[in-house]
């Protein structure tokens, strides 16, 4: 070993010894800090979070707890916020907690965090959790004035061709909104938008979308609006939904939807007679349903053998076939 090598190694050992000396000093510092921490604690999100968790009662959500959650949601990171939203999701399973979630501004705060343009996994999970809470509260008409301000975001998340949990959740929100006359009135001008979304082929999305349309078609005003929409592509959509290429649950949903539409046509024959005789520029859904009744009847009959294991589906098909027979006396 030459002289320079010896000097270099000595320097390394000197630095190492020095490092160990200061490292040992640093390692003793926490013992000093423990004594300092005995003084009055300062408030942090972590402290509040732990206190809040200990007080959580999902069956009896207190306004104090909800207010605390609302405050923390605004300043938390994704992981903490996700846990906080999950508490609200659990509490929203009990209808007597709805007013607390609204009055504490939790619902409004959550909806304001929806991000319909994101593809980031954490943000999509957050959207899903927010929509799950909203789905439960949408059953209560008193929640609708809050939800209505965020319908564009909900529709944007729902309007996709590829499966996503958040898209299904958004459609479930819309389906629950459509359970009441007030909710139907809120969505009546979106009937055309919903029809355009019917081009989706993903089974879960299509089934949830049809659930929205079934609920809307139970309302007279919405049913009339649905029948008056552009029906140029409606028969093509029917052909797919009533085919053997889709799960039977989708065919059953579509059959239920058709029954509601045909029922409305038969109850107001004078109106739809005049419509079919008038010089309409665009062929409506009502006209398409009347003109293509034989074709629809053939599709329904093909499904009959596959409905034997489901009394509900079989009953819907028989009802549809009855409507199609009756409507043949209604000239187009």
UniProtKB/TrEMBL annotation:
SUPFAM superfamilies found in the cross-reference section:
ARM repeat
Q: Where are the transmembrane segments?
A: 6-24
Q: What are the entry keywords?
A: Membrane, Transmembrane, Transmembrane helix
Q: Which PROSITE patterns match?
A: PROKAR_LIPOPROTEIN
**Looking at the keywords, is Nucleus present?**
no
The organism sits in which domain of life?
Answer: Eukaryota
Quick one: signal sequence residues? none
Record-linked Gene3D superfamilies: Leucine-rich Repeat Variant
What is the designated name of this protein? Answer: Armadillo repeat-containing domain-containing protein
Q: Specify the species.
A: Trichobilharzia regenti (Nasal bird schistosome)
């Amino acid at each position: 070993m030459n002289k320079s090598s010896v000097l270099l190694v000595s320097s390394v050992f000197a630095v190492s010894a020095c490092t160990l000396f200061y490292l040992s000093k640093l390692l003793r510092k926490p013992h000093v800090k423990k004594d300092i921490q005995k003084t009055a604690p300062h408030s942090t999100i972590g402290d509040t979070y732990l206190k809040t968790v200990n007080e959580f009662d999902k069956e009896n959500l207190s306004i104090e707890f909800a207010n605390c959650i609302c405050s923390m949601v605004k300043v938390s990171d994704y992981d903490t916020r996700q846990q906080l939203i999950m508490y609200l999701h659990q509490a929203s399973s009990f209808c007597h907690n709805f007013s607390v979630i609204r009055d504490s501004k939790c619902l409004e705060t959550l909806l304001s965090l929806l991000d319909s343009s994101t593809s980031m996994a954490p943000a999509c999970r957050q959207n899903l959790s927010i929509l799950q809470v909203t789905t439960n509260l949408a059953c209560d008409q008193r929640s609708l004035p809050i939800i209505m301000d965020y319908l564009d975001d909900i529709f944007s998340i729902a309007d996709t061709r590829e499966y996503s949990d958040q898209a299904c959740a958004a459609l479930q929100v819309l389906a629950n909104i459509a359970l009441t006359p007030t909710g139907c009135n809120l969505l009546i001008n979106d009937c055309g938008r919903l029809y355009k979304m019917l081009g989706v082929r993903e089974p879960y999305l299509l089934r949830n979308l049809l659930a929205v349309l079934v609920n809307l078609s139970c309302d007279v005003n919405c049913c009339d609006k649905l029948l008056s929409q552009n029906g140029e592509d409606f028969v093509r959509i029917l052909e797919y939904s009533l085919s053997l290429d889709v799960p039977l649950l989708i065919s059953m949903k579509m059959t239920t939807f058709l029954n509601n539409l045909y029922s409305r046509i038969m109850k107001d024959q004078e109106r739809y007679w005049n419509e079919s005789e008038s010089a309409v520029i665009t062929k409506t859904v009502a006209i398409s349903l009347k003109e293509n009744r034989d074709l629809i009847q053939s599709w329904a009959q093909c499904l009959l053998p596959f409905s034997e294991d489901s009394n509900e589906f079989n009953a819907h098909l028989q009802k549809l076939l009855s409507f199609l027979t009756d409507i043949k006396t209604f000239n187009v």
